[in-house]
Structure formats: structure tokens, C-alpha cells
Amino acid sequence: MKSEKNRSVLRAIDANANRCREGLRVAEDYARFILDDGGLAGRLKEMRHQVTETVRALADEPSLAGARDTEGDVGTTISVPQEVQRVSEEDVLKSALKRAEEALRVLEEFGKMV
Question: What pTM does this model have?
Fold first, then answer.
């Protein structure tokens, strides 16, 4: 894999690993604070840590961090109205879980390239 192509793949992996962990963290906090369910919160926390371990098997942290380009990322300014509309705690949970699900799919596909 070419160096610049590899960097782009690492950027996608890094961004989606963070996105997945963020989604799981929101779900974890929902279980903890809304449901008051320590068991579920603990399982979600474990899932979040498993994502980290899986990503580490794909690439080390310095490589992922070195591939970041937040300032040059054309996607940081893109948003849609649905991103800011949350009516209930359940909406927050659904959005977070969908975010994690989509990020896992991206990790699956780009992970095949490293």
C-alpha cells in the first residue's frame, strides 16, 4: 500500500474508531444515568475497550495519531439538521447506537486494507 494511501486509510480507521467509542460511551452513560443499570453500563464499557484493542491490532496509536488531519478534514464542517434534533433520551440513545454501528462497518471495510 502506498504511503499516502495508507495514511488515508489510517485516518478513516482513526476517525471511525473514535466515532464508535463516542457512540458506545453515550450508550454507556444512558445505561448508567437514565436506566441506572450498572451491569449494562459495564458491558458497554467493555465493548468500548474491545474496540480500542481491536483497532490497536490494526495499527498502533502513534501511526493513527500521525495520520490525523483535523484542520484539513473536509468533513468537519458538514452537518445535517437531524444531527441537532433530539427530542428524548431515547433519541439520544438511538442516534449514538446508529453512529457506533455505522463506524463499525467502516472499520470492518478499511480494516481489510491494513
Answer: 0.87
Of 55 and 1, the one with more pLDDT: 55
For the chain, give me the number of helices (H) and strands (E)?
4, 0
Q: Which residues have C-beta within 8 Å of that of residue 35, sequence separation ≥ 6?
A: none
Grid cell locating 55: 483497532
Buried b (16+ CB within 10 A) or exposed e, 80-110: eeeeeeeeeeeebbebbbebbeebbebbeeb
Q: Are 8 and 74 in contact (CB under 8 A)?
A: no
Alpha-carbon span 11 to 57, nearest angstrom: 15
> pLDDT for 85-108, tens place per residue?
889 999 999 999 999 999 999 999
54: nearest Cα among 111, 7, 106, 113: 111
